[in-house]
Amino acid sequence: MSRRTTLALSGAAVAALAVAGASLSWTIAAPRAAAFAERDLARRYGLGLAVAGPATLTLLPAPRLTFSGVRLRRGGHDLVASEGLQVQLGLAGLLAGRADITGLVLERARIALPSGASDDWAEPAARLAARVAAGRGRHLRRLVLVDATLTGRDPRTGHIETVTGLNLVANWPRPAAGLDLSAAFTWRDVPATLTLSGLRPRELAAGAESPVVAALTWNGAGAAGSGAPVAGSAEIEGSLAWVKDTSRETSKNVSAEASPRETETAGPRLSGQSRFATSALPGTLAWLGIAPGPAALAGPVSLDGRFLARPGGVEWPEIRVRVGGSQLEGAGAAALVRGRLSLTGTLAAERLDLSGLMPDVAPGAAWSRAPLALDGLTSGDLDLRLSAASARLGPVEAQDVAAGLLVRDGAVEATLGRATVQGGTVKGRAALAALPAGLDARLQGSVDRVDLGGLFADLGWPRWILGRAQGSVALDGAGSSLADLVGRLAGRAAATVEGGEILGLNFADLVQRPEAAAAALRRGGRTHFERARVSLTVSDGVAEIGQGQLRGTALTASLGGRIFLAERRLGAEARIEPGPDGRAGGSFAIEGPWLRPSLRPLAARTLPPTALPAAASAYAP
């Protein structure tokens, strides 16, 4: 072996030993190593570093110091307490004898987020923002959190909130490049993941807009003990800016016309395209600490559109919303004030299905005695205006629908501006207001030219009357349950049916054979009429029938009696007037359940003879 070869092999061996040695971790004096790293942390961010355990130095593949039992402090308070800390150093600075920290890795750290008036994070954040905006010096290129715990106070409620199991990786390779971040964590017993890319901290710190793409997903069973399903995702793609408080500047020149930006308060402003979807909106809102309010009626919900978010509120100039099988388009806004969600919107749909809002009640079932309350529905505010080419509410189909829903603290009001139902027009208004025990309810409505046969068929009721109906209703009542409320109803109602017929009953045959009245409704038959009219006066849940008349080409009938709303029972009397051709008349009792009443003939009433005074004999017929 030549001398040159021997020297080359010896040099390679020495180099290999040097590389191997540089790759090993060397235990060093912890106080001196901590002081070395602390100088850079204090200079850049105003943070102190305290180390309780040993320290090691590793040179390859990148210089780094590793500590155990670490605390990052500011103003005498611990901001971060970590079982392990790895400080990644720039090689050039290390050769020059100074610490240029380029990355931090924290293991099982407990991080106290800013809360209250004594915000020890304010100074480090301000220094970081100033350095980033100015582009001075080296920046932190990488931050890693392993199984970290974040604790802070919710500014809305003041309650302590905790994020556990946080695994985060943030990379910012160059000052002019974008920041990428990915994180997985658990909050309120729900696992979630967050990704962010494209964010440019330098532009953001300088007050300019920065592009941003972010996505958040969550999937769990909700907070412990709630049992509410929580699953969904949210995505945004747009621009982010940090707006300074300009309200003070605007007040100095009140005569100047202020732009929207001039009146914005300090905080982030985010705009762009957004997408949101959840399989259970009430559960997701409850997980976020927002009272669902009217959203408690919704199930799967998704929305996407152009948005603008400022502190305290979000606006959607263009939005598409899918609720169940219905898709709507329009505009909307949301605001959160002291934990109370406020929604406004104007939405339109080709087809709208509101069947999920209808209670599942059998036609013959008794009125519910469950307590009535609006607490679950009025914990948020809603001002919603809807229009639809066609809509379904339970079994009823409607066209050309314009409606509104207004929810305020302790009150709900639903309006139907118009709707076409079975060829006729329907309008109405229903209002509910909370009472100390129960609800106050008011109902007003009108119908015009509605086909009764088609409507009864949609509702699944017996089609016992046909014709075009018009009418009005105005009712009010109060009660602690639906049964109690119906038992206290008061108001008026009236209806008129033109050119119709009564199915299952022939009045002419009934008069000729009154003894067959009990089976008349089961035998079938028809009674044609030109006009039928009835008016009701309701008091304490009992409707008194007044002006009940039916006129046809061959007969005239009148109706009187009562409808007992609470019992869903009829107690009425129908009188068929004698015909001009000498046909006899008769009276019949209509009794029993209002959907399946029975007929019973009444004995003819004989009026006692009345003697006329002699002076009146000239006027006697």
From TrEMBL:
GO biological process: regulation of protein targeting to membrane
A cellular-component GO term for this protein: plasma membrane
Region (Disordered), start-end ranges: 247-274
InterPro entries, per database record: AsmA (IPR007844), AsmA-related (IPR052894), TAT_signal (IPR006311)
One of the Pfam families matching this protein, by short name: AsmA
Domain AsmA per the UniProt entry, residue ranges: 367-544
PANTHER family membership: DUF748 DOMAIN-CONTAINING PROTEIN (PTHR30441:SF8)
Protein name as catalogued: AsmA domain-containing protein
Natural source organism: Methylobacterium frigidaeris
Lineage, opening ranks: Bacteria, Pseudomonadati, Pseudomonadota, Alphaproteobacteria, Hyphomicrobiales
